[in-house]
Amino acid sequence: MSARHTTNEPGVSVIIPSHNCRNVLARVLEGLEHQDFDRFEVIVIDDGSDDGTAEWLATIKNDRPFGWHLLKTAGLGPAVARNQGAKQAQGEIFLFLDADTIPNPDLVRRHWEVHQRHAGEDVCIMGKVAMAPELMKLDQIRWNEHDLPCQPNDVIKVNHLKYRTPNSSVSRALFTAAGGFHSGLIASEDLELAFRLADRGVHFYYYDDIVAEHYHPLNLSQYIEKSKTYGKALAYWYCMSPELHPQLARRFGLYHPSLSFGRKLRYVIKRLMINQFTIDLITMLAGGLRKKYFGLSDRLYKAMFGYYLRREFRVSFHTALCVLGIYC
Known about the structure:
Layout: E1 12-18, H1 22-33, E2 40-47, H2 53-60, E3 67-73, H3 78-88, E4 93-96, E5 101-103, H4 107-117, E6 123-131, E7 155-158, E8 168-171, H5 172-178, H6 189-199, E9 203-214, H7 220-240, H8 245-252, H9 261-273, H10 279-288, H11 294-323
Parallel strand pairs: 1-2, 1-4, 2-3, 6-9
Antiparallel strand pairs: 4-8, 5-9, 6-8, 7-9
């Protein structure tokens, strides 16, 4: 496709961190080539990839129909990568995509238009992240963690606890005032930012008709490793922010004395049903039910993710205290 660079200043900066996602990143960039809006730039941050991403990006840098920048970070995680992208960005709206979220042709325009309609308000806009049909197969081990219950083409105001980065946008001013993503978190950096944005009075809106497709295949070992990464990050965050303990406990299924009786009861039941003695059976059932009962399989994989996350949280808690110098 021939370049259609615009002379206008970019209204939107699309910020994409990437770690070993060369193949699907090509689909993301192709989706951006076909946008029906041209007042945007794209910033790709190669975060320590070893799959040839940097070399491939260098060969196509002059063959994009939009202004774009290529940055490199040293594998320090998406928070650091996105913050570096934000420093380079020129747009008044920051639109975050992941290297595995493929945008619909109207995605950038829709984010821009929604922010214009909310001019004068402090808002964060979230679009739909739909699981790619290719992932709804027996050999894919994941649940649709980005799914939000909503009527088709609906707009709802959501709690900040529902925030996730891919297919979301916020103004440069709000992002900068909040201090960007916490560079010490290797996961859950989006939710941690959402807490700080909410403290500043930012309202979160979910638009079901602003759509990107999520394509990130995982096998069982990769899925478990991902859950452990979130557990480690949560341990660090939990130690760092004692004032958030009750909210984090409710969000991630941890125990805290402030929980209501009902939540404490659910916590006990969950520990009795999902533990080291039952997790193998749950894993087997999740795979076995995938073909005929996808929804139930999805819930079992979600339960499995939570089990490994909380187990890693308990393992990493003392290490996190040492890292923060709180106790060692």
